[in-house]
Design brief:
Layout lengths: L6 E4 L5 H12 L4 E6 L2 H7 L1 H6 L4 E5 L5 H10 L5 E4 L16 H27 L4 E5 L12 H20 L6 E5 L19 H13 L4 E2 L3 H12 L1 H9 L5
Parallel strand pairs: 1-2, 1-4, 2-3, 4-5, 5-6, 6-7
Amino acid sequence: MKIENSIALVTGANRGIGRALVTALINGGAKKVYAGMRDVEALNKNDPQFLERFKGKVEPVSLDITKKNQVDSAVEKAYDINLLINNAGIANYSGFIAADDLAQARQEMEVNYFATLAMIRGFAPVLKKNGGGAIVNILSVASLINFPMLGSYSASKAALFSLTQGVRAELAAQGTQVMGVFPGPIDTDMAKGIDMEKGSPEETAQGTLDALENGQEDVFIDPMAVQFQKDLLSDPKSVERQCGEMLPA
């Protein structure tokens, strides 16, 4: 798929990777980008120049992906897209046993899995009508093996990885390309509590679009993610133990 002249919807577009994706899409020649976010006014307050810089090409959309009425409204508004980028997500940094209850695990599964599934179900017919297009799911290396320091987040992202594989098969007949992106820690608010080298949102965004144009399906961009994939293929049990050792004492 070509970025030039594409029309995209990016969820979680107010900051981090999502915001970098909006910028990279416009810089790459996208015709229009719907920037989905829960609080458009917060973006206008925190960075009033962001939308002004892309006036006429970026259209903000109030979108909490866990709310069916807002997803339905987004489907109606963004009827012309040929690229859906599911970036919105949440990480509560809770373990399976250490958490006080199941509330945080349920929230992560609701946002990272069920709400993303709702977005895909809503927009699959739109993409079909517009020629097939593409879906990009921003996953995590935690999709591939559990990081116990954020155990329930890892489980929700593993579910999203399985979803990505499943819809790739289901939507192949309508010509929709489905891609999964597996970042390591990226220098965003979500990863501020992780004490290790981090990739940049801009590198992740540009690498994602380059891989999309090249027709890739599973994408590892930042150095940590690239090495993680190699280590996982070489010795998965060793990687599992190393991830377990990251738990606080």
